[in-house]
């Protein structure tokens, strides 16, 4: 391990220790959320650098890199190692994004932001939750902070474009799971083809309460209904999601597999997942 990697690990570790006693990360965390997974090239300049189930994505450009999601607080070292394994540097990260402001996707964001100086861009509707460490989240905020707070550098709105070098990511506002859940649509290319990629934040329902009982999120039912409809009409070549299990990563890719973007086409799987989520939603709201 190089001296630079060791120093980066140490900085991230110290950053996490500083806030460890201030954050109440849930205790019953699935083992797959922290289980290591070998990083790999998905398509073109898009790479998987997450854990076995918490999906994190690296987009590489000559002007710096974009990191989408960071997993748990303990995932910071794994992400750093994965990026280095692929031949890149965490320090080249210029933009941080997330598909949702829940601890399983942003808990290492503050530490990585400090160590890289990257700019944090977030859907405006998730900005408050990001800034207060999840304590105001309608579903998971009952016990205070679940991750270290992060102050966004820029707020995003539906249809906004995030640009770095020759990469242009369109943010799609897909609320419900959180108030500012979002997906990203962009194009990558390799030596043979160009691919339209969707990183989808699938609208799973995270509360057992009836929607009408959630006073802190009065538009939740309307938002879920909007998101489910909007996601059905998206056009793309490859699709991914916030959790590896949501897009069947482990059936489509095994560690050591050769580069194969076509494994992630699977439009049928995407619509099957949306249909299942639609059915869950309908059962919850009844015949409205």
TrEMBL record:
Respond yes or no to whether keyword Metal-binding is given for this record.
Answer: yes
Name the UniProt key words of this record, in alphabetical order. Answer: Hydrolase, Metal-binding, Signal, Zinc
Q: Classify the source by domain of life.
A: Bacteria
Looking up InterPro entries in the UniProt record yields:
MBL_Glyoxalase_II, Metallo-B-lactamas, RibonucZ/Hydroxyglut_hydro
Under the heading Gene3D superfamilies, the entry gives:
Ribonuclease Z/Hydroxyacylglutathione hydrolase-like (3.60.15.10)
Q: Does the keyword Hydrolase apply?
A: yes
Segment forming the signal sequence: 1-20
Q: Give start and end of each Metallo-beta-lactamase domain.
A: 53-243
Q: Tell me the protein's name.
A: Subclass B3 metallo-beta-lactamase
The gene from which this protein is expressed is bla
